[in-house]
Amino acid sequence: MTGVLQRETPKAGAEADHTRPRHPRRSRSHVAVFVIPFFVVFALFFLAPIGYAVYQSFFKLTSSGLGLTEPTLDFAGLDNYATALTSPAFVGSIVRVLLFSLMEVPIMVVCALALALLLDSARARFRAFFRVSFFLPYGVPGVIASLLWGFLYVPQTSPLIDLLAAAGLPHDFLGPDTVLLAIANISTWQFVGYNMLVLIAGLQAIPQELYEAARVDGANELRIAWHVKIPLVRAPLVLITVFTLIGTLQLFVEPLVLKPLTTAINSDYTPNLAAYNQAFAQSNIHLASAEATLIAIMSFVISFGFLRMVNRKGNRAW
After folding, report:
1. Which residues contact 64 (CB under 8 A, 6 or more apart)?
2. 154, 174 in Cβ contact below 8 A?
3. Residue 233 gets which letter from DSSP?
């Protein structure tokens, strides 16, 4: 028996050695083949444009008083940032998008959550049809969506305004006091279906045993949604909130398309629109780069601050 064990022991060791990876460096190189192209594309099309915009923001074109010579490119330091932050129009646009975020983010999250809970309920019928119907507006480009709603907002082409006027409820969708609500309506119509699908994916990951246990305890669908579903989709809720927050701070397409239809939207209505105006209408790419950099910093600070606040509250809850 001792001899048999001595002969079998090396065999077991040989089998163990056979199962171990013989070439760890080769496996790492295989992983690098798939990872390196991503980082190359990420650096070329994301990091490089950001770095170039930041670089351009530290310069300005200086011309002589007579304008007889070509302007020279001089180092400006933080002058462009000071010009942007002391401009009443640009500061006003920042305040406007902050107010828009305070209004649009809760509307978007609540509507997406309500639709997701309705389609995930046990009594829901034709779920596939309604999911596709609610998601379809997301497939419409932002410019097209703004044009479609723009025709519905203009009195000369809008059947909605005619119906409201016939009912004794005249309404100006593109007035100074209502145009921001009109833009919020376009954003909600276009993106609520996408956010709804994110939440539905989170709801479908919840074990069905939790629902059965809640029903055994006597909970109805409303209590199950409030005490089981919503707490367990906290991560998708935070995700769509951050996405919506960043999108509202970078508001651009809707006011750009609606601008020819109303006098309530000017060239500095949002920070992105102000930067666009400086770059392509005023030909001041350096000030536009500074404004774009400020927009990026503002979006990063607000979204990162929101995540820190949510994570801190979540840790305290646990």
Report:
1. none
2. yes
3. T
Q: Are strands 59-62 and 72-75 parallel, antiparallel or unpaired?
A: antiparallel
Other C-beta atoms closer than 10 Å to the C-beta of 262 total 20
Residues 6+ away with beta carbon under 8 Å from 267: 259, 273, 274, 277, 281
Torsion of CA 202, 206, 212, 213, to 10 degrees: -120
Q: Structure tokens of 181?
A: 């609500």
Beta strands in 7-146 (DSSP E): 59-62, 72-75
- Count CB atoms within 10 A of the CB of residue 295: 23
Quote the CA–CA distance of 31 and 298 in Å, as a whole number: 36
Position 255, amino acid: P
CA distance 309 to 286: 35
pLDDT in tens, 68-121: 677 788 888 899 999 999 999 999 999 999 999 999 999 999 999 999 999 988
Ranges of beta strands (E only) in 1-144 are 59-62, 72-75
What b-and-e string marks burial along 39-65, b requiring 16 or more CB atoms within 10 Å of the CB? eeeeeeeeeeeeeebeebbbbbeeeee
pTM: 0.83
CA geometry: angle 232, 237, 240, nearest 5 deg: 155
Overall size of the chain counted in residues: 318
Show the DSSP H helices in the chain as ranges: 2-19, 24-42, 48-56, 79-85, 88-120, 127-135, 142-153, 159-166, 179-204, 208-216, 221-224, 230-232, 234-249, 253-258, 271-280, 285-317
Contacts of 261 (CB under 8 A, 6+ apart): 150, 153, 154, 174
- Count of Cβ atoms closer than 10 Å to residue 310 Cβ: 16
Q: Output phi, psi for 57, to 5 deg.
A: -70, -15
Q: How many CB atoms lie within 10 A of CB 161?
A: 19
